């Protein structure tokens, strides 16, 4: 809301020495946000001049200029070149003398042009910042002014005024007016406030037919609660808008159109109630407020013909729609140059109806902005009277007895405010008298009761609906800066949960291993969920969003891989082809046959019991946290003497081992199949529980070439996805810190020939069990199938490392442990040592 200070001073006592910054600081103290200070961007000398004479001089370019002699209150007239032709000898004009700076900035200096030295410039309204009109210069007679030459034109036209701009939150619609801002400045400083809506001379009209035909009644009047009309006859639409009004409207962000329209805009800004004027001669019969009918259209003031919706609230006469109520008037009854009799409308419309209409037609207006925030229901009579007064004073009209007043009697809804409630909520020990005084100050009627107070909010504050909003007002007016800032003392022994610590360890470990975390939106298409969210690609249940951000991805994801693929695609499109990405996030896995979201939400003011919480939790699908990674391109670039190392399945398996180490588990890989992955390069990841049973916790593999191509990713792409919640649950309390042994290790290798169908992980597990506690680590280093190995068999080579915590192992002890493992493998799997 832009507030010209000269306008503000009419209704509240602002000290003469107060700067715009002082006024902004006062308004900030009562909860407004400071935007900016707005000034007319010009400086003097800008004076009144009288055209003594001029000579028209045609130019070679076809343009005719005037060489003018202009009296600017000095001993000698000034010679000025002007290209406009809309003025005459004797006209009073605005002259920018050398040294002046006009908006732009456009500095004025004496310069030679068209064979003359132009000693200044005769200005148009646009050049002065007073409007968009620039076809001709500004003639002061057209503004009803006849000053002496040399008078300061900046002060004469109100161009020395300043406005402050504050951001008004949607719940405080009353502050979108000079009346509201003046009241708030009074609250902030204690300055005397004069309410322009409180008048003893409010007139009224009768005899003009106004009716409401709305099948959706609101407060008994449908989409309109108050509707006041007044008539002014004999107005002169050709009269100029006074300079002070033009300047104030310009500072407030509204351009001057014509006197009659400017008056309605001026009163809207002053009081906060939108006003609409109709050319009375263009109306057919009375006015009916109703909803639109099927197939109706309306040409609005912006010249567009709009197809109306059944929810649109209309202003109609006997000829049909003549305006979108509270949004924009119709062109058929528009005030124009031939208007002599004006019907003034001041109304209050339903906030929701106006907001929907404005958005439906993409037609935001100053009127709709105020109506959708709520207009004072007692304001229409005062607003209409103010417009009548200005049209009589400035347009030469006469107030007529014709009019109407349709409205519901306003009755505030009292709010019970318990004693000590405000203190307990805000945390400040306000005196009871201070609470009552503050609420009275903002316009409430406060009645003391045995339990506290009964508070009736003023008509202009529809946002005051309960005891919490009243407490907020007390805190706001008394000073938010007086609320103490006290940090709560955290109880000892609290911190991250074990699950949170585990997730953080995994994420930190992957980042330390060179992966980049790339969170993504949790949305996917049905095809993505089927392909990546299941082992075989079958269609499984997914949660569909009621109001999806993107119609192409209306489901919550079952897998993190689609988000990584989209991130990889964006990077590759920008030339970044070597990628190591990961994400830790929730996936959504509804169970087949279970209907979610059917539980009713308990009231906000009631704490739900355990049964209600259990019901709410049951209405939410399982949302385990997964960790997923994606590799593409190379892990190391080509260097002198070394080729690039592609980021393949081996690197992904190393990353899986990083996750396992951070989580405190051992993960084994067995060959598997998944719909989106290469059948020969896919592994299922398993972890042993406390009972020794292995649980599948994820997968790793290389994307099928067709899947990678669909994601516009070149080359091989490797992915892995693990159920992080399941891994951490299986880890339990097994994350321990082991002491480093100072004794040397003994290393040996063993190559065993086994059936080709035996998984290497199973043989490894057997060797670990047989070798016993001296075995410190075991790693598969070779899988050989060829000459020297029988058909249908394979040779698996493991590197073993043995160490004791209390002594140096002998070679015999290490060999004994190794052979014990080999013996168990021979017994279980028929393994033989390869010679």
From TrEMBL:
Coiled-coil ranges from the UniProt annotation: none
FDX-ACB domain: residues covered: 741-834
Cellular-component GO terms for this entry: phenylalanine-tRNA ligase complex
Cofactor remark from the record: Binds 2 magnesium ions per tetramer.
Reactions accelerated catalytically: tRNA(Phe) + L-phenylalanine + ATP = L-phenylalanyl-tRNA(Phe) + AMP + diphosphate + H(+)
Enzyme class: ligase
Residue ranges constituting the B5 domain according to the UniProt record: 410-485
Predominant subcellular localization, coarse grouping: cytoplasm
Localization per record: Cytoplasm
Molecular function per GO: ATP binding; magnesium ion binding; phenylalanine-tRNA ligase activity; tRNA binding
UniProt-listed InterPro entries: aa-tRNA-synth_II/BPL/LPL, B3/B4_tRNA-bd, DNA-bd_dom_put_sf, Fdx_antiC-bd, Fdx_antiC-bd_sf, NA-bd_OB-fold, Phe-tRNA-ligase_IIc_bsu, Phe-tRNA-ligase_IIc_bsu_bact
Keyword terms, alphabetized: Aminoacyl-tRNA synthetase, ATP-binding, Cytoplasm, Ligase, Magnesium, Metal-binding, Nucleotide-binding, Protein biosynthesis, RNA-binding, tRNA-binding
Essential cofactor(s): Mg(2+)
EC number: 6.1.1.20
Quaternary structure and partners: Tetramer of two alpha and two beta subunits.
Stated family: Belongs to the phenylalanyl-tRNA synthetase beta subunit family. Type 1 subfamily.
Listed PANTHER family: PHENYLALANINE--TRNA LIGASE BETA SUBUNIT (PTHR10947:SF0), PHENYLALANYL-TRNA SYNTHETASE BETA CHAIN AND LEUCINE-RICH REPEAT-CONTAINING PROTEIN 47 (PTHR10947)
Name of the protein this chain belongs to: Phenylalanine--tRNA ligase beta subunit
Lineage summary: Bacteria, Bacillati, Actinomycetota, Actinomycetes, Micrococcales
Gene designation per UniProt: pheT
